[in-house]
Specification:
The complex is a heterodimer.
Chain A: H1 7-21, H2 25-44, H3 50-69, E1 76-78, E2 83-85, H4 87-109, H5 111-114, H6 120-139, H7 143-161, H8 168-199, H9 204-214, H10 218-236, H11 244-251, H12 254-279, H13 295-314, H14 320-341, H15 344-375, H16 386-389, H17 391-405, H18 411-424, H19 431-457, H20 472-490, H21 493-501
Antiparallel strand pairs in A: 1-2
Chain B: H1 2-18, H2 24-48, E1 69-80, E2 86-95, H3 97-116, H4 124-143, H5 147-156, H6 158-168, H7 173-201, H8 214-217, H9 234-251, H10 260-267, H11 270-295, H12 297-302, H13 304-324, H14 328-349, H15 352-383, H16 394-397, H17 399-413, H18 419-433, H19 438-463, E3 473-477, E4 483-487, H20 498-516, H21 519-536, H22 538-547
The chains are: A mainly alpha, B mainly alpha.
């Protein structure tokens, strides 16, 4: 028989909600921004995209202030443990908002989008919607909250993927994304239900405590882990949950592809780290394969499979977006390496790698946008002879690709260095993973270099003008990303300290 | 001073970036200025260098001062890694006997390379920017004393080289460029893992922290006994030695990792071949002497025989391949492989004579092979072919050219009085006096004979006798009644012109002077070589094992 709560209880609930709201300002602000963008679109019916994109840009930048304020509020659960604020979450909030900013900048540069001036209101609104979802994913500490925020991200992403309605491949990508997404969400929530059955809790900190204190049936936990990994693996695009990504990446407008490949992937990793560090028992770092942490073995399989499959299949790609899709599968594998280490250094390396990936991958996609604007093509063959005609784009692309391979002096090299350092700091047990990592990165050199090869070493069969001018904005953004990729490749202390600061996950037994 | 010599070309590259690409002459002159500046600095460094200080390891007490010279040491990156303390990477430069010879060689070859690049017509701006980046990376490699810094410079060479071969190369350049890139990267990624492993295994005695310092890593007492590459983990030390050795051997290049080199040389434009043969190959053996051997001396002692055998294979296999070539540049490329085999053989001897010979051979190989490739370039510019059987009787029509070729060819085959002879003699003396390599040395002497064979044979076919019936040039009677040579599509001077002489004469002079009086180089390197031999010697090893 359900009892009505007493007045005092209701009062305390309201008090908690009221006090929690002040810790929820970034999300509230972003939600308001979402509505403002729609209003701007409805009221002003802008003929150009500028009012919309500038509003989004200003709003996203302003939200950084609210995120910054949260540094003083860390180590706190709000909304009855649904939501936590810790440095780890703040790191990812910055990450997602910055990704959103860059995605908006790339969208502004993309002719593909701008040639259809109507309906861009929803586009920018959905980008912001995705940012909200990801920001919430980073902070969620409850199975229900995790699921809700993930669905918010996914639903926005489905629509954005299919945004070029008249292009069949865009629609096809969106449909595939939706179907795969539905299946893996279903699997994940089934996994959640098993966890709930084991522990009777939905809060991940409580789950971790319950599993630790009461013990559990390893097979059941493993089954649940596999199912939850299916959901997260789909978000991060790791093998064998990657099947959607090449088609989606190819079909979606390039700015959306870039956004998905960086931010959506990072959101998956944020969730992966939080969930598995907090909810599932693990060996505490010293003994990485101790009882209770069998799921680390799963992560190893995912990681190795992703590195090998992504890098090898990329060798045959002729479309730049597909190539970068397979490359992003491979990079999911590298990032997983850092998570497997399960200690401070590993987490720091993971976060650092994601920051480096943000710079170089957005950079590569931005150059792809610039070139697609001018040639209307994403085929590597059509990149012939462009290096000389578009000096900045060519040089920047080369820097980004070299960084993706992991060669100095770029930030990608430091990312790989930190990941491998974290592996080797454990002695020789993870050496084989590091070996797979470096050998596959040699393979990756071949396909990444296909792009500079066509840009510089081959001449176009069609007559091209001597210089091709890109707009000012994309050039400035490209140059900025290139310089940052190089600068942080030489002086990486700020990024690394930033990552180190963010390794404190609330409720994790390690810290 | 070392920073200046390393980064001068980068400054030039930045200047060139601001120059409009139509101002080709300015671009060339800026690069030349940087290279000459490097040369002047190299001479100043040479003057400031005290050959009495040993280098290789730190002086007693753990400080590099008093052992290395012209040290520049600044904290570069210092990271907080929580439980792991802090990650320290230093900007740490310095020279000792090993590196100063290579610094001099690099500066010299860079100047020659710029002069030789004057004929590059295509995309001049891009070419010289890449050239300058390459130049900085090479010089940086030789003076870096921090493994991380060394690795950054080492990898920084790859991309410019890829483009220099790939854009300005011959018909099959795409293949050659990516092959070069993949081979070298394959070697160096393992170096990355070993570097990380060494970092976790070595403590800087001065600070008590983990360090990337090459100086600290060269002393066995700085290794943590139970670390992954500490003295107790024998298996991993062997594995690390082998993968490092392969990484460096690819660069040398050592059989069976040599196949990228002939491809790269054949496709590369002349100046890049000169840089490649003159400097880049030395990085492989320099890396062995600076990093590979002193860090794992007991493994080095255990593998002397294997290294010697590979050296002998290089010498003989390279010579046989050279004998079979019909393309002059490929012949020179294989002869370059063959002559790098002497360096390996000298290293395998493990004694002072052998090591001195090896280092001296590195220097001489740099000057001689650079000259050989320049000479190949001279004839290729005129005839647009390098097929040996498309010439014949050139000596009568291009006497100066033939004279310079003869000096270079004889230097390469080791004629007494020219520098190549002395270094090869040292190598053989060293190899004979070592028990391990004596038999290998006996077999390797065959290489000298084969070397004489392919060099003299090519000399004969191209320069002596009469014009071949299917030669690429014609003979025309001039106004003076003499027959003159005439190349198609060539308007320049038939014999060597002033620029070519400017490049070739200094090299020829150095080869002759160092062949008669080797002390300028030997004097520089002796102390360091003795120190290296002591670091590698089994006696010291047992002593340091006792300490641990």
């Amino acid at each position: 028989m359900y009892e009505l709560p007493s007045g005092a209880e209701i009062q305390s609930v309201i008090e908690t909600l009221k006090s929690s709201v002040s810790y929820y300002l970034p999300e509230i602000f972003l939600s308001a921004l979402f509505l403002v963008v729609i209003m701007v679109d409805l009221i002003f019916r802008p003929k150009k995209h500028h009012p919309l994109s500038l509003t989004s840009l200003a709003g996203l930048l302003a939200s950084l202030y609210f995120i910054w304020q949260q540094h003083a509020m860390t180590g706190r659960e709000i909304f009855f443990g649904m939501y936590v604020i810790d440095e780890f979450a703040i790191f990812f909030k910055y990450f997602f908002v910055l990704s959103g900013v860059i995605a908006v900048l790339i969208s502004m540069a993309s002719d593909e989008l701008n040639q259809r001036a109507s309906g861009l209101g929803e586009y920018y609104a959905l980008v912001i919607g995705m940012v909200i979802g990801m920001v919430m994913m980073a902070s969620s500490a409850d199975l229900l909250m995790i699921f809700l925020s993930m669905e918010l991200v996914s639903l926005s992403a489905y629509v954005l993927t299919g945004y070029l309605k008249r292009e069949p491949r865009s629609t096809e990508g969106a449909l595939k994304y939706l179907i795969y997404g539905a299946v893996s969400s279903g699997l994940m929530i089934y996994g959640f239900s098993i966890i709930y059955g084991l522990t009777g809790e939905t809060n991940i900190i409580e789950i971790g405590r319950a599993l630790g204190e009461r013990g559990y049936d390893p097979v059941t936990l493993m089954t649940a882990s596999i199912m939850i990994l299916a959901g997260i693996g789909y978000k991060v695009g790791a093998v064998p949950f990657h099947f959607w990504s090449p088609d989606v990446y190819e079909g979606a407008p390039i700015p959306v592809t870039a956004f998905l490949s960086v931010a959506s992937k990072a959101a998956g990793f944020a969730l992966l780290i939080r969930f598995f560090y907090v909810a599932v028992p693990h060996g505490g770092g010293a003994e990485p394969l101790s009882p209770g942490s069998e799921w680390l073995l799963l992560l190893m399989i995912l990681s190795v499979a992703s590195m090998i499959y992504g890098n090898v299949v990329a060798l045959w790609q002729t479309n730049v977006k597909r190539l970068l899709a397979y490359s992003s599968i491979a990079h999911a594998g590298y990032i997983l390496l850092g998570i497997i280490v399960m200690d401070e250094l590993g987490t720091q390396a993971t976060l650092f790698y994601m920051l480096s990936y943000l710079l170089m991958n957005f950079g590569a996609f931005l150059v792809a946008v610039i070139i697609a604007n001018k040639t209307g093509s994403e085929n590597i063959e059509d990149y012939r002879g462009l290096g000389r005609r578009m000096p900045l784009a060519g040089a920047a692309m080369t820097v980004f690709l070299i960084s993706l391979v992991g060669l100095p002096p770029t930030v990608g090299f430091i990312g790989k260095l930190m990941i491998f350092s974290a592996l080797l700091a454990k002695g020789s047990i993870f050496l084989w993973l590091a070996l797979v990592g470096i050998l596959t990165s040699v393979i990756s050199l071949y396909y990444y270099m296909l792009i500079p090869l066509n840009m510089y070493l081959r001449e176009s069969s069609e007559p091209l003008p001597d210089t091709i001018r890109a707009g000012v904005l994309p050039q400035v953004v490209t140059a900025g990303l290139m310089l940052l990729t190089l600068y942080f490749g030489i002086f990486f202390t700020p990024l690394s300290d930033f990552a180190h600061y963010a390794i404190r996950v609330f409720g994790n037994q390690l810290y | 001073m070392l920073s200046l010599i390393v980064f001068l070309p980068i400054v030039a590259a930045l200047v060139i970036l601001a120059v409009p690409s139509s101002q080709k002459q300015i671009i060339r002159l800026v690069t030349l200025l940087a290279a000459v500046g490097q040369g002047v600095l190299a001479v100043l460094i040479w003057q400031a260098y005290d050959p009495a200080l040993p280098g290789i390891i730190a002086s007693p007490g753990g400080s590099p001062e008093g052992s290395f010279q012209l040290i520049e040491r600044l904290p570069w990156i210092s990271l907080d890694l929580g439980n792991f303390g802090s990650l320290t990477i230093e900007y740490f430069l310095g020279v000792d006997g090993l590196s100063i010879t290579m610094v001099l060689l690099t500066a010299l070859i860079s100047i020659i390379g710029v002069l030789s690049s004057w004929t590059i017509k295509k995309q001049v701006k891009g070419y010289f920017i890449l050239f300058n980046v390459l130049s900085t990376a090479m010089m940086g490699c030789f003076v870096a004393l921090d493994f991380f810094l060394f690795y950054v410079f080492w990898e920084l060479m790859l991309l410019p080289m890829y483009f220099l071969i790939g854009i300005w190369g011959g018909p099959n350049r795409e293949y050659a460029a990516i092959k070069f890139f993949l081979y070298t990267l394959f070697g160096s990624v393992f170096m990355l893992l070993v570097m990380i492993g060494l970092y976790f295994s070595v403590i800087d005695p001065l600070t008590g922290n983990h360090t990337f310092s090459l100086v600290a890593m060269a002393s066995q007492e700085n290794y943590i006994p139970d670390a992954i590459l500490g003295p107790e983990s024998v298996v991993w030390r062997y594995a690390a030695f082998i993968v490092l050795f392969i990484g460096f051997a690819i660069k040398v290049p050592m059989f069976p990792f040599h196949t990228w080199l002939p491809d790269a040389h054949v496709e590369a434009p002349t100046p890049i071949s000169v840089i490649l043969a003159g400097v880049l190959l030395k990085l492989g053996t320099y890396g062995m002497m600076r990093i590979n051997f002193p860090f794992f001396p007991e493994v080095f002692q255990a593998s002397l025989y294997v290294i010697g055998v590979f050296g002998a294979i290089n010498i003989i296999y390279g010579a046989f391949c050279a004998l079979a070539q019909s393309d002059l540049k490929k012949l020179v490329a294989y002869s370059s492989i063959s002559h790098m085999g002497y360096v390996l053989l000298g290293l395998a001897a493990g004694n002072s004579e052998g090591m001195t010979g090896a280092l001296y051979q590195m220097f001489n190989h740099g000057t001689i092979t650079a000259m050989l490739f320049l000479l190949v370039g001279v004839i290729y510019d005129r005839a647009h072919t390098r097929q040996i059987d498309k010439f014949g009787g050139l000596a009568s029509y291009m006497p100066v050219y033939a004279g310079v070729v003869t000096v270079a060819w004889f230097a390469s085959l080791g004629l007494p009085g020219l520098s190549g002879f002395i270094s090869e003699a040292f190598v053989f003396v060293g190899a004979f006096s070592s028990e391990v390599t004596r038999n290998i040395a006996i077999v390797s002497v065959l290489g000298i004979v084969l070397g004489a064979a392919y060099l003299l044979w090519s000399l004969q076919r191209m320069f002596l006798g009469k014009r071949n019936p299917d030669a690429v040039y014609e003979l025309r009677k001039g106004a003076d009644g003499q027959e003159h040579i005439h190349f198609h599509d060539w308007n320049g001077k038939n014999d060597l012109d002033a620029r070519e002489l400017l490049m070739l004469t200094p090299l020829a002079v150095i080869i002759i002077v160092l062949g008669v009086y080797p002390m300028p180089v030997l004097g520089l390197i002796t102390t360091s070589i003795n120190q290296l031999v002591e670091v590698l010697s089994p006696v010291v090893l047992t002593a340091s094992a006792a300490v641990n």
